[in-house]
Every structure is written in C-alpha cells, then in structure tokens.
Amino acid sequence: MLHAIPTEKFGPLGEPMAKAVSACVHCGFCLAACPTYHELGQEMDTPRGRIVLMKEVLEGRMSFEAAQPHVDRCLGCLACEPACPSGVPYRDLISPFRALAAGKMKRGLLERVRRFVAAQTVPYPWRFRVAAKLGRIGRMGLMPKAWRPMLELMPEALPPAQSWAAVNPAIGEKRARVALLLGCAQQVLDPDINTATIEVLTRNGIEVVIPRTQGCCGGLAWHTGDLAAAQKFARRNLAAFPDDVYAILTNAAGCGSAMHEYHLVLRGTADEARAEAFRHRVMDVSVFLMRLGLREPLREMKLKAAYHDACHLSNAQNVRRQPRDLLKAIPGLQLLEITDAHLCCGSAGSYNMDQPEIASSLGEQKAKSIIATGADVVVTGNIGCMTQVALHLKRIGSHIEVKHTMQLVRDALP
C-alpha cells in the first residue's frame, strides 16, 4: 500500500509503522482470522480496515478520535499475521500507534481511573493481591458498573502466596542452566504454575535461576499505549537477567510475546541493541523442553485433554507444536483439538476491562467449543486465557478443569 506518512515526525517508531502499512496489499485474507470481524462484521474492525484508518491518521487526513473506537476494539491477538500472505508485521503498527495516540485520545473519567488502577496494580504482585482481595467488595455492588467485568475475573478465593529460591538446582546430572520470568498476575492468581514449571525443569536436569530484581514484562503497558512504562519495565529486565544462562524462559504467552518486542519498545534508545540481543534469548518453556528433550518417560494418565492455543504463543511466537508434543508424551492422554482454535478467547491482557461485551462473547464461544470436545481438562500456556476460560466454563455450568501445560506435565512426572 502506497503511503505518504512523514515517518520522521513520529520518531523511532515512525519507520516500523510505515513499513507495516506499506506491506498490506488489501487482499482480505486477515478477515476470516479476525475475532472482532466475526463479532461485529464491519470492515473497520478488521486488520485491513484498521491499517487504512491508522494510515489516514498518520498521514494527517483523519483525527485520532475518529479512528479510536476501531483501534481500541483490536484485541492485539495477531491472528492476522499468520493468515497474511504478504507478511504484514501488524504488531509493528498497532502497539506503536497506540503509544503515539495515548495522549491524544479522549477517554471518560471512569475509564481513565480504571486504566490507572490497572496500571498501578496488575504489574506489581503484592499490589495486585491486595486489589484482588478488595474485588470482593466490588462483587457486593460497591464498585462502579464499568468495573464489574474486571472484578468478575477475580477468583472467589486467592491461592496462598508462594515463593521460589533464587537458584533451584538441577536434580541429577545438570544438563542446562536457565532463568525464569515469574509473571505478575500469575504469581497471584495461580502461583502453582511457576512451582510446576520449576519442578519439571529441575527434574529434567535443568538449573533454574530466579532473578530477584526482575519485574513485569511490560506487556500491559505496551499494548495499551504507555510507552514510558513499557520502556521502564523492559530496562529493568534487561538489567535483571544474567548473561550466563542458556535461555530466558517464560511460561505466560503474553509475557513471552512482550519480551520478544523489547527491540521495538526500546527502538531509538541507547538500549536498542541490547534489547535486540535479549529478545533472541527469550523462549517459551515448552520450546526449551522439547529442544532439550525430556530425560525420563512420563507416567500414564487416562485423560482427555483439549489444548487451547494462547494467541501470544501461537500467533506472536509461532509456538503451536511444542506444547502439543509435550502433552502427547504423556502415555494414555488423548489430545483433543478445539473448533475455531485460531479465534481468541477474549482475554487479551486488559481487553476484558476495555471491551467487556466483545470479550464476554468470545469467552462464551470458546467455552462452548471446549465443552464440545468432551474433554476432562483444557490445557493452555497463558494465565489470562486460563482465567477467562475458567470464568466462562463456570458460567455455563461446566466442571472441565483448566490447567497450564506445565501443571499437567508436572502431574505426569514419574
């Protein structure tokens, strides 16, 4: 697509945005993959439509406000990227555009407060734990209606807090040394995911380092347009993670995806080169385990398990086969595929808060598709997906258990 975007006007992010715009040939292959197009049926709520809108804004022919509703409704699931025959790097456009537009889009007072509260709690586990406990008050009707979707995601009772050693030694012969990102919401909503991950790794001869100064991956800030906060989190992790490890592992799809974009977050800064090298060391735990290989056969589990592709694992990191191969390594486990697996469950970071009606519809559809498989358990690799899927399964009255891939593999350790 030809454009007249004055890239220099938009600083370091101008060129990536312009390249993404120019790569689009308007073929429309992205429409079938886009969840919001499925929901709303409007051209402006497709990747192709949004690219045109953002192009018009960047060229100065449209106001930010005119494009805002449609840009806000984008999940950022990146299902459009694998569907695109032209290889449009949509991620290089949507998040930088939101960062550019952050100070120019008009939002109501309640929405601004809600976004501020989310930004000041979710990335900080101890604050988030307090906020989650206060969520019970919200369920009693003492919070604004606009906040209810966020509060509904909070569990009835939080699991006990857990902590992890700075160094978790390999059991038996040491095969590798890695560092692990703990995640933010995950530490509060389901800390057992980290415990399971560490157990699976150490039982397979892998030493696991937990950097004490690590922080939020910055994904929430980056995907909602808060570039300054995203850069702060990125720099903190660049400094926190050691160089003497084979890989930096993540067990949350959204975190891994965000860390893979540190080169874009820090583009044009003194840390850009370091961020570029750093992102190539980031790896989902399932990829690492399948690359190294399991040391011992897993024990038999007679179980029907449906696998849900987290968008920021399958689309953003192109990780689809490895989690499935891990699950297939469990003798007796029947792995089931979900209809329309490419469609987002509606979690997408803060999307439940920002677009509750669309998020709820997508969550309900995903839950129904999972139930239709006849599975005993649904397995995925992202805490946001787990929370969303569990909520909508419960609403329908299903008792299908929701587990992280590492939790199920841990349960199958001999």
Protein model, in words:
- The chain is of the alpha/beta class and 414 residues long.
- It has four domains: 7-101, Orthogonal Bundle (Fumarate Reductase Iron-sulfur Protein, Chain B, domain 2), CATH 1.10.1060; 109-152, no CATH class; 167-290, Rossmann fold; 298-411, Rossmann fold (3-Layer(aba) Sandwich).
- Helix content is 50%, strand content 9%.
- It is built from 23 helices and nine strands.
- β8, α22 and β9 (401-404) form a beta-alpha-beta unit.
- α3 (47-58) runs antiparallel to α4 (64-72), α11 (192-203) packs across α23 and α21 packs across α22 (383-396).
Lay out the secondary structure.
Elements: H1 14-23, H2 35-40, H3 47-58, H4 64-72, H5 80-83, H6 91-101, H7 109-121, H8 125-142, H9 148-152, E1 167-168, E2 176-180, H10 185-189, H11 192-203, E3 206-209, H12 219-223, H13 227-240, E4 247-250, H14 253-259, H15 262-265, H16 272-279, E5 282-284, H17 285-292, E6 303-307, H18 311-314, H19 321-328, E7 333-337, H20 351-354, H21 356-372, E8 377-380, H22 383-396, E9 401-404, H23 405-411
Parallel strand pairs: 2-3, 2-4, 4-5, 6-7, 6-8, 8-9
Antiparallel strand pairs: 1-3
Helix pairs in contact: 1-6, 3-4, 11-23, 17-19, 21-22
